[in-house]
Amino acid sequence: MNAKIRTHSPVWAHGTGKAKEVRERIVAFCAGRDVTSLAPCDEALIHQDISTNEAALLALAKAGVLSKKESRSLARALIDLRGQFESGKFSLDPELEDVHINVEQALRSTVGDAAGRLHSGRSRNDQVACDLRLWHRDRILSHIEETLELLTLWLEQAEVEKGTVLPGFTHHQRAFVTTWGHNLVAYVQAWLRDVERGWGVFERTNRSPIGAAAGFGTSWPLDREWMADLLGFDSVLENSADAVSSRIEVETDIASWMSIWMNHCSLVAQDLVLFSMEEFKWVRLAVEVTTGSSIMPQKRNPDFAEVIKGKASLVHGSLASLLSMAKGQPSGYHRDSQYSKPLGQDLWREVEGVPEVYRLVFGSLKLDRKRMKEATKGGFLEAAEWADSIARESGLPFRDVYTCIGQAVDHCRKTGALTRSAVNDALKKNGFEHRVSAATAKKLASPESLIAGRSTLGSPNPKRVQEQIESFRATVVGWKKKVDRTTKRMERKDRERQREIENLL
Amino acid sequence: MNAKIRTHSPVWAHGTGKAKEVRERIVAFCAGRDVTSLAPCDEALIHQDISTNEAALLALAKAGVLSKKESRSLARALIDLRGQFESGKFSLDPELEDVHINVEQALRSTVGDAAGRLHSGRSRNDQVACDLRLWHRDRILSHIEETLELLTLWLEQAEVEKGTVLPGFTHHQRAFVTTWGHNLVAYVQAWLRDVERGWGVFERTNRSPIGAAAGFGTSWPLDREWMADLLGFDSVLENSADAVSSRIEVETDIASWMSIWMNHCSLVAQDLVLFSMEEFKWVRLAVEVTTGSSIMPQKRNPDFAEVIKGKASLVHGSLASLLSMAKGQPSGYHRDSQYSKPLGQDLWREVEGVPEVYRLVFGSLKLDRKRMKEATKGGFLEAAEWADSIARESGLPFRDVYTCIGQAVDHCRKTGALTRSAVNDALKKNGFEHRVSAATAKKLASPESLIAGRSTLGSPNPKRVQEQIESFRATVVGWKKKVDRTTKRMERKDRERQREIENLL
Amino acid sequence: MNAKIRTHSPVWAHGTGKAKEVRERIVAFCAGRDVTSLAPCDEALIHQDISTNEAALLALAKAGVLSKKESRSLARALIDLRGQFESGKFSLDPELEDVHINVEQALRSTVGDAAGRLHSGRSRNDQVACDLRLWHRDRILSHIEETLELLTLWLEQAEVEKGTVLPGFTHHQRAFVTTWGHNLVAYVQAWLRDVERGWGVFERTNRSPIGAAAGFGTSWPLDREWMADLLGFDSVLENSADAVSSRIEVETDIASWMSIWMNHCSLVAQDLVLFSMEEFKWVRLAVEVTTGSSIMPQKRNPDFAEVIKGKASLVHGSLASLLSMAKGQPSGYHRDSQYSKPLGQDLWREVEGVPEVYRLVFGSLKLDRKRMKEATKGGFLEAAEWADSIARESGLPFRDVYTCIGQAVDHCRKTGALTRSAVNDALKKNGFEHRVSAATAKKLASPESLIAGRSTLGSPNPKRVQEQIESFRATVVGWKKKVDRTTKRMERKDRERQREIENLL
Amino acid sequence: MNAKIRTHSPVWAHGTGKAKEVRERIVAFCAGRDVTSLAPCDEALIHQDISTNEAALLALAKAGVLSKKESRSLARALIDLRGQFESGKFSLDPELEDVHINVEQALRSTVGDAAGRLHSGRSRNDQVACDLRLWHRDRILSHIEETLELLTLWLEQAEVEKGTVLPGFTHHQRAFVTTWGHNLVAYVQAWLRDVERGWGVFERTNRSPIGAAAGFGTSWPLDREWMADLLGFDSVLENSADAVSSRIEVETDIASWMSIWMNHCSLVAQDLVLFSMEEFKWVRLAVEVTTGSSIMPQKRNPDFAEVIKGKASLVHGSLASLLSMAKGQPSGYHRDSQYSKPLGQDLWREVEGVPEVYRLVFGSLKLDRKRMKEATKGGFLEAAEWADSIARESGLPFRDVYTCIGQAVDHCRKTGALTRSAVNDALKKNGFEHRVSAATAKKLASPESLIAGRSTLGSPNPKRVQEQIESFRATVVGWKKKVDRTTKRMERKDRERQREIENLL
Fold first, then answer.
1. CATH code reported for the domain at C30-135+216-235
2. Can D30-135+216-235 and D246-369 be said to share one CATH topology?
3. Of A389, B236, C41, D402, which is most buried with the most CB atoms under 10 A?
4. pLDDT per residue as tens digits for the range A199-219
């Protein structure tokens, strides 16, 4: 027996196969930074900085700023550098300040002074703005993609569970009968707005600042539109001053979007936290997605859900930092905003695993449908529907019926469910002639028939839920195509640009 | 002499005509809540609540839930109520909790129990969600409209000032020559993204929650799609649970949008604060937009600009509150989120005057073009362009030229401007053969020729600024048409709905 | 039957006597701003502004700046004005900008130009700073007082409930047996830190800025130390620049303090929300502190608790606004910070009722001790204590015992409680010789004996809880005396100052 | 010439000696995370975790839970471990989750099962809470110490510069003559409040949670008071539930304190940013504390000041995260709050260098006293003092004099300074008989005499500034002694505890 393993994960390490994989994924997700170090921010930008240099090389070569010979040697050097980077042989030297100087220096050591000439008309202001936009746009696209996978799963499960009744809550108090399928579709509807929002953020991010130099343009003849196209941007961020000073806006836009999204994530988390409590036991989380305790052998803690709520708070704070940083600045670049880089990267690191984790959690979740259904029988979930039904049948004003039902509820508190006789007594006592028939009472007695009576568009009635599923499924498919098309276009542009570089040889 | 006026506004009350109007507008904008009370939140929602009741009446009448007679008397009562409201005769009774109960009670006092029957299938949860969406969508549209007016003004001024040179800054230090026109276009480019963002918010806001009831639909046969159309919504927020719990998201979405926008506003404010300081005097604010001091007779304080920066912080805090409120909630409505109503309304009250105030400020601003131009001659704004020019002419690597220019700058610190001889000395001292010709030096000597040399798309070169102006002008016009079309559609829907109500008579 | 009452509060209006009073208090607490307007901020400062004027009059009279005659007439005018204000006859004229000009104008209308001379050496900068410090210091003291009342109640209840067992949670999962009394004492311990923090805030608030003028002192011979003393300040905020620019720090300090306190409040709220859910029913909120629903007659919603959580988010956002507002300002007063006034006042309005509401809620709460105790028997709350006990008796390492107990728990999941035989089987299976005796098993079988076994200082063992109660009670009494003494000193200073004014007659 | 150095720091690397050291310190301060990785959080806690284990060993040995033999071998193992750690030979294994398991495992590999027995009665909940409090209390003390060094420097400089006149601002507009010495003393007054606040935070932090176990105490006979004393805590955090759940409050308390402090830091930063602009040139930052530009050879950017403002925003966001995280949690530990660890550590990493950087910056700052003084002659800084003086001499009401001076200011706008004749004309025009004598005018003509006329306590009058300096110097010395005494006590406790461990051998 390995003392090490025995020590630190006494209970929850005994999974195998798929469960083991899942557990490892969950542990990594929850781990945080206790024993993990964070890489330098610019390590994430090496690919992007090489790409930006490629675009610059092509533009300067085309404009004749670089001679054929210089272009050729720079092309060779960039191809080599990319090769080194991709095979893990290029890493950043901390003494060289940032990725831009590191890349420049790597080129210089190969081609000498021509490396300096590659920086004609360029400033670190537009370089970093460009690299970051390239980096973030990829994160955005893949995050939307991950999310759409989760929505697909929820829609599948909603179809299965559209008849699974449980209490719906308002104010943490039981309110109406609803279904698990309807809950899932509610998540989907909210998250689809997040996808919409995210797409807007993508469109605002995928604009090219390159060529703005320090914010005031340059006298070097750079073709900004062509450079933008070479990098797969949708358009040029024309005004050079704004192109540079809007750098922090990219992260702020993302953090705003994520702040709302993370609140949607936190709602799902809180539903799972509540419904898996001993006092509910409506859902049972797979053991491999839960965490044990170092001293309580019985524990199956929903750490992943708590961590997601914590992450929501983290993102809110990052947004607050970003907004505060930019407030009150005059025109021009200011170093205050340098923190947008780690804030933006930390943000993605914290949130990007959430959709996958939810796929693992929902994919392995067990519902206790029996307990859920039993729970619909306490708490007078049917009270409002009795009132509606009587109002409809009798023509009495709802408010009067409401009063009678209220009294009947008070009378039945001990047993926990409305009886026909209690209701009829209350109607009588208040001087109304209408009485509830046995047939009507029967229809109000089962959670399923209560749900079936809910007729409006978008309600938990299984037929209505099915409509929602179909409509949202179509939307999800539409988004998937759009994201896929865009991703492919970016990849094609990458290949094309690299081919152009090869053509310089 | 009126002692009262003399007392409280000794210096800054002597305006007349247009200036007086402007001053009053500015004073009101800056006033805050010192001696102004705030109306109850629901007072703003009376029109919207009557509209929602109209839609409900039409739907319940069509479904046969209400008899012809009931429909007729309710139609009459609603027409009367709207009339009273529009003529200022309807106000809220604080003992009746909220606008919904106030309206219900007003109807009840006219038509009796039918007023209660008008609430079949409705909950305050979907009513308030609906009223608020109607209210906010109008604010959004008119805010965008106001903004577009300002952008139009800035583009006009940019055209006039595209040749007005002044120093451009980075790190609060003079960096490059730029133009006032380019600054203005930078504002426009940023604000156009805000308009884009705002339109996304509008689209997400203009969806109908009505018919979602308490979040679980209803057994009353309400046609949600028709109700949505009657109220001018673009679509139905289908899933009933999300329709209700997304209520706070409307305000959060707006606050996110506004938070970034207000930062753009704060940038303009800070530019004006700086450039109007005694130490700059590049812009001169009209006396009527400034504020005096109670003890310093010489003061012309840019209070409006400071207030705008303060408002930015206010909005950031509101966003933080809204995000924190929703975090960690499980499914269903929770009263925590009731504060979204005052937060959302306060937010609009604080920000909605900003575009108009900027129109007043920029409309009356005086530029001191001479001082601006003089300022371009200190601080070595031309240094980087000398370096670029020499690198281009000589073929030397930029980094080496940079070093020479750096030394020449050090040498010329006393006089404050680069001389050809200092530069040539530095080139010589570093062992380079290239020398700057008199012709080249001349081109680098005037701020206008420096600017004219900036050739890239989006740069401050007046030709490039003109391109930007034309492109943005077309975008502004496009948005104006879109907003106008939408506003008109809303108004038409309002009239149509009211006509349908009249048809019930 | 009153149609009005029937309409808007169908269920929850039937209380009488004490319950009715409580309900009205709760309804007011939850009401928010829907149908309530907010008074102008400066209305709250009239008393303070008159006091500040009194101090100024005394200082100027003593310095001989005002003649005896002027002093006499100003003294008479101030006495009259205070009289009018106290009898409700003085209100603010919105055209006179703020409370300072209103008061000045009121004096001017009585005494003419001498009112102007009363402003020698004074600026609105130090006047408002002074008024606000006076206002906030009173709020702080009375808030601490209210809080101490609540802590007294909790300590009383803790003494009664120190033996009332229920499950303690970590990660929302049952962890260990604890007691209701221990929970209450945990609240007290946290809130006592809040009192400490609040006292620090009081000390920093109760310093006098008066005489700092616009931030640069004055040439008028004002005795700042005497003025501070006349107003009951502890000391003078000496440096005049900081005295003025620290104005926003008062509110920020309060908001920081309150932000943590409100989180403590939100913890209590969430405990009540959870424990009163249908799925728990461990506590039963009195009907008069809950709220009904407009369509669900069965509802007893814990709105007050949700509102408290919402208020926590409000306060957090206010703090964010205040911090962001002050960030990046250079020395000197800036109007950005004017929003500190409404933010500070709104903050108090939102939080000041919380301690009283908790007194009402806890004063009327019913515990279901039976259900609480039953709940200690599921969820293997005893598991860790079995492990501890076996480790202690056997000398085996805790980690090994933990493993055995973990296996026994898995074996007993169906029945929900550990059995001696399952544990002994696990010990055997893992090759350990130790066995749990019947006597030991018995000691681990009851929640009361588990609790009694917890021996450490501060644990839920009733004897230990009693120690905590006694220690905290002494602390509470100590604070009460301190607050009381301070409040009385302030009141005495008020009287003394007014007497000095009378002496001028 | 080294190509590497030439490349990345073309201008600003040529310092030597002290200047070079300063530059390296500044570069490191500004560097951020671009090319720097962050260590795992728990690496910072190794010393603390060993200390906590030492206390536990002593307590368990004393209670007889551990045999003499076990105690001896554990003592030896802990001494070895500390030795390894101090000589850099102990580092964390990421597979072992956290520092606690790493330390436990290191002991286990030496002493076997006894390592497990050392964890009797301990949970990671109280261990981490204890380690963090130990870590933070040291940060707090050394941060206060660093700060007091800076305040000492400012007071020295204030003494030198108490007669150095410059314009004082309100609303970014020149207001009154003030002095650089007065500015510095204003900083000191604000920062002394921060020291006060920090001391309160220290007192609340230096309380011992150890022995609280998972929040519910333990049945192992641990002497919590002794353990607290062994670790240098001031007292025991008695209630075990609060001892554990208040963990996040430590960081929140620190972040609140730091948020206000950082705003004070940002004020100093903004003063330096403004006053070092080309348009002011009142202060000249030493070249070694500024940063150059990659393309503009003339730049001397105040990056350190911008970075400090950015850090302020970072800290504000961290506070928002911490507050939001804790909001709405019920009793008990929840994993949401795990992020308090990196937030708390990042916060210190960001802020702890600020006092030192300000010492370097102020230590090398050059004032341009001539330009400062010249600036006092524009902008009518003397206007209010003319008004005061006339009001005093003439007995006219201030408001009337204010009006006259306002008119005179308008008349003199061209020349930029008030003339006696313009003032006398205005007095005459308004019908007043008083005239300003030549003698009076002379007294108002020099900035020094204006300042000398400012008589109130705390004003910029050099005599008054001297009083402030003396009073604050005494306060600083008092704090230094207190901090020093406390630091020494901690160190003594560390030695004593380690000696007790040696006694076990």
1. 1.10.275.10
2. no
3. D402
4. 999 999 999 999 999 999 999
